[in-house]
Amino acid sequence: MLFRRPFPSSFLPPLFLLLVLPPFSSPSSNFNASVSPMEGNFGNAFSENRQNQQKNGDVFRVFRIFTENWSDVKAVRKLSEIAKENAEVDFWLESTHPGQFADVMVSPEGKETFQRFLAEYPHLHVEMTVDDVQKLIMRDEFQAEAKRTAQKGGAKRADAEESFLRSWRRDPSPAVDNGHKQSYAFDQIGQLRGVDYPWGEYTGYSEMVRYMRTLEFYYPNLVQLVQLGSTHEGRSIEGVKIGYNGQIFPQPSNSEHKPKNSRKMRKKRVFWIDGNMHAREWASGHTALFIINQLVWAYEKDPFLTNALNHIDFVIVPCTNPDGFEYSRSSVKPQIRLWRKNRSPEQCSRTIWGGIHCCRGVDLNRNFDFHWAETGSSLNACSNLFAGKKAFSEPEAKAIADFLQDEEIKGSVDAFITLHTYAQLWIHPFSHEYQSFPNDVAKVKSLALSATARLREVYGTNYKVGTGADLLSPASGGSDDWAKQTLGVKFVYLVELRPQLRVSNGFILRQEELVPTAIETFEAIKVIIQGVLVENVLPSVPLPSFGISMKNATNSQPKSFLSTVTAKTTIGTTEQIKKGTTEEGGGTAEEEGGKEEEEKQWKKKERKKQLKKKEKKKKERKREKQWKKK
Which spans of this chain does the record mark as coiled coil (predicted)? Predict the structure, then answer.
């Protein structure tokens, strides 16, 4: 459904009526299939929630706002600023350049805010991509239930449920399906002795921890459980360290002069990976667990990874926000399933109208001590981007910082990868403002381009490479930028996994895409592993290629070839690299030249605005302190 302006402005009122009407049918929509009576088979809660939702008109919807020029981008920015102060309008994706689009979830409470926005900017091209978010969530629940039922032997019921599920998958568009079927992806999962995990499914935190503890039991020389700390609700933040405990280091050319204390001469290098920092991004935790599985399975089977495990310790924490994650699993209601923050105790803040709002939760990826609370964040406790009372106010963020700054690890971390969803982006520092880069940006970006080129070889999935400010929007207080600036980690990346931008599922990735997502991501991470080995002049084994084209994906399985492949990537000029917008397969410099001057002017204005906002926030903090004293 399009919102345009084909009529005079006097005809605008009916536009608003579209937002308050109950969900309507459209032949092109994936999300408006009629509800089957079988819905009740999955629990009365689902059907009751849905009935109440329909009666009250309390429907969460997702709208896609297209931008054609910088004026449109500025308009979307204005809505984004409003969204930062409350959770009624939730930006799933922001637009930073003309030609991009923003995805916005509008709650029943945010309906009027969105109506006013459309009235102010009636020329914008807006599409409704999801007419009922809860229906989208429930579809995923039905899929999981059908799979579990089939495994338990309930064939008849499973067949009936699969028939119902087909009614949700009417659109054969590759934008929805991508041809990434798990039927051939499962062959790529390493089978471990005594350890089992339901790959391709979303599981709870306790099952994640049980899996990691079982690995430690069966593979004590390779796996060690690590506990970073505890959450507000008392859950232990757990991960694993994977690496050969014998600590094999390079042998000197003359072994007769090898020091007796050679094991103390050099620490093993450390490679950090984490997931689920944002509660609703379930696919990131599944991907992190898959990487754990593949590393353990590969030892003494895969020459490249065996060598890597001899020289690098991989510290992987699949879920750094257990409280928020478990809360997001507690209901199919959109405001719960799409919860972003942790579950910190209720905090109160004064609104711009003089009232007081009290809400729970802090955005952990705004709570790190790197330009804390400056851009892309909020000091309003009810905002999805609430940065907390101060940097490292949250036990989850502090636990990560304390672990990585421990004397045994400090100075040894060479790679830091934090997994998120969604948009298929490979982000490198810095993301707190436009045109801000570390001194080694050329090397960091070059390796990222090689990684995404390898990722593309698996299923043809395309990723963009750049800074978060350029690809999404400026955001300060992130764990990745903190790791680069404070710890001095060489290769730092924030990876936004599937789905791609044009798919409207957003954070609710189909379970059939979980394993393919994990496989292609791990292949890209192998390139980063190789970069760490080369950077430290450690022994290296040729990295085998991994190729499968999207065209034959439905008929073939990904195949490994034991031949060294150098990824062919076009990095571009030094100027393009510093811009942070170069990507594999992107446009030429000539194509971008026409927009460059306009973009520079716009970014200068944005920087001035950011400085004003910093001053404003300082004043707000002072007023907040004075108010608390009173």
Answer: none
